[in-house]
Structure formats: C-alpha cells, structure tokens
Amino acid sequence: MSADLTGQTLLVTAVGGAPGFxxxxxxxxxxxxxxxxxANRLAAGLFLPGLTPVVVPxxxxxxxxxxxxxxxxxxxxxxxxxxAESEILRLIPIRDELAALGVRTWLPSLTAMAAxxxxxxxxxxxxxxxxxxxxxxxxxxxxxxxxxxxxxxxPRRGHGAKGVTVCHTPTQARVLCELTDDPIVQELVSGTExxxxxxxxxxxxxSIITRDRLVVRNGLAVAARTFHDDQVxxxxxxxxxxxxxxxxxxxxxxxxxxxxxxxxxxVNARVAGAFPISEAAGADLTGQFLNGLFDRPIDHHRLRAxxxxxxxxxxETIAAGQPPLTATGPIPSPVxxxxxxxxxx
Length: 345
Known about the structure:
alpha+beta; Rossmann fold; Dna Ligase, domain 1; 3 domains; six-stranded antiparallel β-sheet; four-stranded parallel β-sheet; 27% helix
C-alpha cells in the first residue's frame, strides 16, 4: 500500500460480526482511524480501543441509509467498507450519493449481489456457467429429490449457518420448509469444507488464498489451515467470473472424495470472517484491497500465501467495567425517519 494512504479515516460497518470486527482491528493496526458502525450498541467491535463507535438502525430499517449518510457528512470518512451483505444491497443504489460526499466505496453490481445474497439464484447462475454446485430444490419441487439423498434445509438469504437443519427424506424436508423462512433444500455434501479469500481488481485479475475450515461454529471457521490446490483455484476463479464479482470477497465450497471433485456452495460479497489467516500466510490482502479502493494498482505478487499456516479463533474480553463503558465514547442515536420530501417526521 502506498504510504500516503496511511492514516485515512475509514467507516467499517457490522463491527459486531467477525468480518467487521477483524477488519476494523486490522485497519487500526495499519495506522488508520476507524469509525465502526453496528445496529447493536453492545456489539464487540464498538468497544475496540481507539475506534469511533456509531450505532445505526438495522439495514432493514427505512432510516438506515439516512443514518449512514448523516455519519458520512459529519465524520467525513474517506471510504465506507460494508461487511454484511444485507447492507451492501442497500448501499449499491446510493454509491453515487456517497461519492458526492467524498466517500469511496468498492461495491459489486446488483446483478452480482443477487447471485450472492440469494442461494437459489446462485445455484441457477452456477448451473448456467458450468460451475459445480450441490443439487438444489425449491419447496415446490421436492418430489424430484432422488431417494436416499441426505439433505440440508436452509433460508435462501440466510447467513452464519442460521436456520440450517439436516434431514434425510423429502418428507422431513417438506416439514422443515414450513418452519424455515423462504427456504431451499440442498443435498448434504460430505468432504472438506474450504473458504477462498479473493481479491478481483478492476481489470478482472484474481488472487485467491484458500484454507480448510477445520472447525466451524455458527458458520464461522474457528480453526483453519491454508492450502493450495489447482482444481480449487480454477473452480473458484470460474465461479467469480460467473457471478461477475469484483473487489474483496470470499467463496465457500467442498473438496469431496470418491471421485475427488470441487463443489461451490456460495459466494459472499464481503471479507471473510477468518481472513486474518491469509495475512498471516503472507498475503497483503487488506493493503491491496485498499489500493484498489483508492484506485491504486493492485500488486498480485503481494497476494501470494504460504500453505499449512494455521488460525485459531476464540472469544476474548474487549471491555469490562461499570456502565457506561467509556471505551465506546458518545454514540449518536439513529436519525428520525424521513418522508419522501426529505423532511424529518
């Protein structure tokens, strides 16, 4: 990263989740001033020492965009980096408005986001482009499931393994679909699950760092190990091209035996929850992402990573003491909703 980028003020959202928390802390360690935003005023990332915390409405709230824009006007960050896909969907339509405020973003297209956010849409896109992916069914075609297929029922737009249930018959899947919000049904895949940290520059050049997800809790890899596999790299590259992704993102899938093949399960249009393993393996993931964010050349040679590097995550105490915890500083309340004329009400 160019030296003159050091010390920029950067707004990172969803700092209560592992991707946002680790990204905020990494940017702080690189010498940046970080504004951390989250909808939960007890989110761990808001208590990071030296971080400027702001509480915003949830991305589903009509006040969300107004709150983010007001923060950008008052705090004047050089860039906004969302780390939750529900927020990215809301921010894409206002990227020009953010740019007019001097706030840089590096967001995918709405078409790419549709394939990332909706697992059924991703399955269709994968099939259309020859990307190997688990067989998938919607609730109205469960009669097409072959007998003896173990299954997973999950929300089409879920994240963090929330609402994911394993079952063994179409009848069980049909019951679970009644209990799951907007569900899909997929075949249960056995094998080694992996994540690929990916950075795609503005010219479409891709760098990929892959790791096995050795231990997964609530959708987050808490133990991981880097590896290199040509078939995985080729399949991930083809997946990114099929989706039309750009910037920093991650791809998840399985290496399956008998016969050995690669299956891609999803693409996330954000930094991964365990991305620090890639930096520990020697890849300048954050620095090169910032280069791209600020329209600097990305050096893909600096995105090479060593294999057999391990990561272990565990819960840590960020703050403890009598309320109010001073580490948070002043937290502004969400702005009131606005009507269509822009007047507060």
